[in-house]
C-alpha cells in the first residue's frame, strides 16, 4: 500500500508544480528525481508558504509555526497513564526489594541488599530459566513461520485477506481463554489425541509427561503470537517498492532470490525487533503456563516462581528483588543483542 | 493557562503516588467490642465480605440479611462476594476499605490481627462459649471467631466401594491402598482423584496432620520436631499414603488436566471412587450427584485410615475466622452480625458442618463417625505463629499445593528423586528454618 502511494505521488509530479517560492529554488527537485525526494520537497515548500501567510496576518502571535507547548496537552493523558501505571510501580518495586515487606504489614524494615544476596545464593532459583529455552526455540520457529506466511501473503494469493485474518485471529483471543481451550485440546482423549489417532499415532500425555509438557506449552505460545509477527512482517514487506521485484525478476532472480536479497534485508529492523521481543518474552513467560499448569510438573518459569514467592509465601520483598533481577537480565539480553546486531538504516532505493 | 495544566499533572501524579505508596490503614487497638445488649438501639449499615459467592447468587445472604433485620431493625447489611477472596482482600487490607465484617484471610499472620481487627472479647469469656477461639487469640484477646469447624477425611462413593466388596473403613494406610486396588480391579471407576491441576484441593493433604497420631499438639510440635517427615511422623504417614496411591496408578491418568467442578459430578455418578477433602465437600458432592441424576446418599465420608489407641481420629480445624475491621465505623452493628451469624443463622447446620458453638449436635454427615466411635480432636494453636514463621522461612508451604504436587510428580515418575529424597529435602528445609526462627 505504502509503496504504491509513493509511486502514485511520483506520477503526479511528472509535471512541474507551480512556480516555487524564491528561497526554495535551490531545493527544487530535478525533474527526474526519485519519488521520495519529490515528496519531501513538496512538504517543505508547503510549510514555508504557510509561515509566510501567518507572518503577514496582523495580530498573529506565532512567529515560527507552533507554540512550544502545543504537543503537551495531547501527550498529557498517555504520559500520566504511563507514569502512574508503569514508572511509579517500578520505582515502588525497586524500593520494596530492599525491604522485608510481607505484602500486608504496615511496617516494613529496610534490609539493604539481603534479598539480592538471598537470591544469588540460591542457584536453584535460576534453574527455571531452562524452561525458557523451550519458549526461545518456539519463538524462533514462530519468527520463521511468520516470515514464511508473510512472504506468501504479500504476493498475489487467492483469498489472502481471509488467510491473514485466520492467522492473525489467535492473537486477538484472550490469553486465559486460550489456556482453557488448549487444556481441553491436550486432555487425554481430547482433540489432539483424536486427530492423531486417525493417523495411527497413539495417545500421549501432552501436559502430564514432563518431557513433553514444555513443548506443548511453547507450541500454544507459537500458535498465539505467530499472527502478530506475521502482520508486522507483512507491513514491512509492503513498504518495499515493487519495482525492485520487477528489476530482480528481469535479472533472473526467482522467488527465493527475491526473498533472500530484497525482502530479508528490506525488513531487517523489524526482524531484529521481533527477535528482541522473542528473547525478552521467552525469559518472562507467564500467562500460558500459569493458566494451564500453574507451574507444576516442571513448567515453572521465573515469573511464576516470583509470583509464588510473593503470594504463597508472602515474601514481597524477595519477590520484588527477583523481579528487578529479571528486568536487569532482560535489559542485558537486549543490550547484548543490539551490540551484536546494530540497527542500521535500510536504504533500498 | 500553562500553570493550571502543570498543576493538574502534578495533582494526577500525587494521586498516583498516594494510591501506590500509601501505608496500610491499620488503626490502633481499642477495647473489645461487646455484643450489643439492646438490639433496637443498634444502628448503622455494615458491609460483610464473603468468599461464598454462591450464597450471594442464590439469595442465601439476602435471606440472612432479612432475618437479621427482624432482630436488629435499624442495621442495614450489605454483602460483597469475592471470587478470588484471598487475593483481593489481602490487597484491600493495605487500605482502610475491607468491609466491616470479613473472614480473616489466611495470609494475615496471627500476630498482626490486632493491627487490622477489633477485639471481640477475652479468651476466657469467649472460649467458654465457642470452639477454636485459640486460633484467633492474641494476648488474651480474641480477634476472630469461627462459624464452623472442618474435619478432614475421604469423600467416597459408597456404591462403588460396595461394588468392590469393601464395606468397612480401612484401618491402615496399607489396607486403604489395597481397597483402592480392589476398586480398580472390580469397577470401572478411578479409585482416587487428586485434583492436581486445580491445586487448592491438594492443600488438604497438609491438614492430615494430627490424624495418624491423634495428638492435639501435633501442630505445636512442628516447632520443635527436627524432622516432621521422619519415620512414624504424621506428615510422613499422610504423604506416604498419597505417594503410594499415585505410585500404584490408583489415581487419574493425567493429573495435569483434572477439573474440580467436573470431579463433583464424576464422584456423584461413581466414575471416581474417592477424594481426600473435608466435611464441607460432602454437601457439594451430594448436590452434584442429584444434578447428574445419581443417588446423593451414595456420597459418604470416612476418616483417615489409622487407629491409634484403637479408634479412628478426626482432626477438626476452624474454617475462616470472622473479624471486625479495626477501621469500621459501626463496630457494634458488626459485632451483632457476627454473634447472630454464628448463633442464629443456622448456616453451619445448613452446610452440614460442625458448628463452632459449644454443645451443638454433630451434622448428619458425621453420624456414621459417632457410631463408629471416631474420636474428634481439636488441634492446639498455641504455637501456631511460630509454625507459620518456620513454614514461611523454609518455603515448604504446608498449606500450599506445591509440596503435595511434588510428591505426586515424584510418585508418577515425572520428577527426579524418590519419596525418601523428597522427605529428606523437606526435613532439611524445615530444620534449617527452625534454626533461623529459633523455635
UniProtKB/TrEMBL annotation, chain A:
Its main location: membrane. Pfam families: BPD_transp_1. It is found in: Cell membrane. PROSITE patterns: ABC_TM1. Residues 1-63 are annotated as: Disordered. The keyword Ribosomal protein does not apply. Coiled coil: none annotated. Residues 128-337 form the ABC transmembrane type-1 domain. It is a multi-pass membrane protein. The chain crosses the membrane at residues 74-98, 125-150, 162-186, 270-292, 316-336. PANTHER family: BLR7065 PROTEIN, INTEGRAL MEMBRANE SUGAR TRANSPORT PROTEIN. Belongs to the binding-protein-dependent transport system permease family. This is Carbohydrate ABC transporter permease. It comes from Actinomadura fibrosa.
From TrEMBL, chain B:
It holds the Pfam family SBP_bac_1. Residues 1-24 form the signal peptide. It comes from the Bacteria. SUPFAM superfamilies: Periplasmic binding protein-like II. The keyword Oxidoreductase does not apply. Keywords: Cell membrane, Lipoprotein, Membrane, Palmitate, Signal. The keyword Iron-sulfur does not apply. InterPro entries: Bact_solute-bd_prot1, SBP. This is Extracellular solute-binding protein.
Amino acid at each position: 500500500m505504502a509503496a504504491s502511494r509513493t509511486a502514485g505521488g511520483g506520477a503526479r509530479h511528472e509535471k512541474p508544480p507551480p512556480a516555487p517560492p524564491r528561497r526554495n529554488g535551490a531545493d527544487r527537485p530535478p525533474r527526474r528525481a526519485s519519488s521520495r525526494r519529490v515528496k519531501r520537497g513538496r512538504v517543505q515548500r508547503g510549510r514555508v508558504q504557510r509561515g509566510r501567510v501567518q507572518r503577514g496576518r496582523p495580530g498573529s502571535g506565532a512567529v515560527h509555526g507552533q507554540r512550544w507547548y502545543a504537543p503537551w496537552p495531547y501527550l498529557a493523558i498517555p504520559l500520566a497513564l504511563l507514569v502512574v501505571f508503569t514508572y511509579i510501580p517500578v520505582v515502588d518495586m525497586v524500593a520494596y526489594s530492599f525491604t522485608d515487606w510481607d505484602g500486608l504489614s504496615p511496617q516494613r524494615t529496610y534490609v539493604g541488599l539481603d534479598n539480592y544476596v538471598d537470591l544469588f545464593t540460591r542457584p536453584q532459583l535460576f534453574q527455571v530459566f531452562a524452561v525458557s529455552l523451550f519458549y526461545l526455540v518456539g519463538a524462533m520457529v514462530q519468527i520463521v513461520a511468520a516470515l514464511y506466511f508473510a512472504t506468501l501473503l504479500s504476493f498475489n494469493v487467492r483469498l489472502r485477506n481471509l488467510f491473514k485474518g485466520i492467522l492473525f485471529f489467535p492473537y486477538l483471543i484472550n490469553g486465559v481463554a486460550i489456556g482453557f481451550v488448549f487444556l481441553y485440546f491436550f486432555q487425554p482423549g481430547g482433540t489432539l489425541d483424536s486427530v492423531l489417532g486417525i493417523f495411527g499415532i497413539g495417545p500421549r500425555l501432552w501436559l502430564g509427561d514432563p518431557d513433553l509438557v514444555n513443548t506443548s506449552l511453547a507450541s500454544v505460545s507459537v500458535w498465539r503470537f505467530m499472527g502478530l509477527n506475521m502482520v508486522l512482517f507483512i507491513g514491512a514487506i509492503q513498504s518495499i517498492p515493487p519495482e525492485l521485484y520487477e528489476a530482480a525478476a528481469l535479472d533472473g532472480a526467482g522467488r527465493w532470490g527475491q526473498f533472500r536479497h530484497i525482502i530479508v534485508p528490506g525488513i531487517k529492523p523489524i526482524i531484529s525487533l521481533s527477535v528482541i521481543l522473542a528473547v525478552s518474552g521467552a525469559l518472562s513467560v507467564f500467562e500460558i503456563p500459569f493458566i494451564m499448569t500453574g507451574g507444576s510438573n516442571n513448567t515453572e518459569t521465573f515469573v511464576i516462581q516470583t509470583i509464588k514467592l510473593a503470594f504463597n509465601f508472602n515474601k514481597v520483598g524477595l519477590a520484588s528483588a527477583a523481579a528487578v533481577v529479571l528486568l536487569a537480565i532482560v535489559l542485558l539480553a537486549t543490550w547484548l543483542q543490539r551490540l551484536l546486531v546494530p540497527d542500521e538504516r535500510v536504504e533500498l532505493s | 493557562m500553562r500553570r493550571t495544566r502543570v498543576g493538574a499533572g502534578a495533582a494526577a501524579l500525587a494521586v498516583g503516588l498516594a494510591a501506590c505508596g500509601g501505608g496500610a490503614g491499620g488503626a490502633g487497638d481499642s477495647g473489645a467490642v461487646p455484643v450489643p445488649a439492646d438490639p433496637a438501639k443498634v444502628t448503622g449499615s455494615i458491609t460483610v465480605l464473603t468468599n461464598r459467592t454462591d450464597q450471594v447468587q442464590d439469595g442465601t445472604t439476602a435471606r440472612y440479611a432479612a432475618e437479621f433485620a427482624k432482630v436488629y431493625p435499624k442495621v442495614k447489611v450489605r454483602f460483597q462476594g469475592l471470587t478470588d477472596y484471598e487475593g483481593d482482600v489481602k490487597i484491600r487490607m493495605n487500605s482502610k476499605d475491607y468491609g466491616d465484617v470479613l473472614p480473616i484471610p489466611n495470609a494475615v499472620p496471627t500476630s498482626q490481627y490486632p493491627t487490622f481487627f477489633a477485639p471481640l472479647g477475652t479468651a476466657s469469656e469467649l472460649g467458654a462459649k465457642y470452639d477454636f477461639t485459640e486460633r484467633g487469640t492474641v494476648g488474651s484477646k480474641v480477634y476472630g471467631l469461627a462459624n464452623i469447624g472442618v474435619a478432614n477425611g475421604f469423600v467416597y462413593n459408597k456404591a462403588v466401594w460396595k461394588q468392590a466388596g469393601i464395606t468397612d473403613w480401612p484401618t491402615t494406610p496399607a489396607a486403604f491402598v489395597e481397597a483402592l486396588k480392589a476398586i480398580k480391579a472390580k469397577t470401572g471407576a478411578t479409585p482416587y482423584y487428586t485434583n492436581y491441576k486445580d491445586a487448592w484441593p491438594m492443600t488438604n493433604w497438609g491438614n492430615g496432620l494430627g490424624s495418624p497420631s491423634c495428638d492435639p499438639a501435633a501442630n505445636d510440635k512442628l516447632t520443635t520436631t527436627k524432622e516432621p517427615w521422619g519415620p512414624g511422623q504424621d506428615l510422613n504417614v499422610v504423604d506416604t499414603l498419597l505417594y503410594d496411591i499415585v505410585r500404584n496408578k490408583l489415581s487419574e491418568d493425567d493429573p495435569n488436566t483434572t477439573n474440580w467442578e467436573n470431579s463433583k459430578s464424576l464422584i456423584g455418578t461413581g466414575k471416581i471412587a474417592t477424594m481426600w477433602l473435608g466435611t464441607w465437600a460432602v454437601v457439594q458432592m451430594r448436590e452434584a450427584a442429584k444434578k447428574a441424576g445419581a443417588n446423593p446418599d451414595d456420597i459418604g465420608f470416612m476418616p483417615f485410615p489409622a487407629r491409634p489407641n484403637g479408634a479412628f481420629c478426626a482432626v477438626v480445624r476452624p474454617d475462616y475466622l470472622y473479624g471486625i475491621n479495626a477501621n469500621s465505623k459501626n463496630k457494634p452493628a458488626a459485632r451483632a452480625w457476627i454473634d447472630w451469624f454464628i448463633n442464629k443463622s443456622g448456616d453451619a447446620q445448613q452446610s452440614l458442618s460442625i458448628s463452632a458453638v459449644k454443645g451443638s449436635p454433630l451434622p448428619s454427615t458425621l453420624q456414621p463417625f459417632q457410631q463408629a466411635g471416631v474420636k474428634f480432636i481439636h488441634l492446639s494453636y498455641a504455637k501456631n505463629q511460630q509454625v507459620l514463621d518456620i513454614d514461611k522461612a523454609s518455603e515448604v508451604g504446608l498449606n500450599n499445593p506445591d509440596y503435595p504436587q511434588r510428591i505426586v510428580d515424584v510418585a508418577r515418575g515425572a520428577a527426579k528423586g524418590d519419596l525418601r529424597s523428597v522427605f529428606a529435602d523437606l526435613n532439611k528445609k524445615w530444620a534449617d528454618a527452625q534454626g533461623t526462627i529459633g523455635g
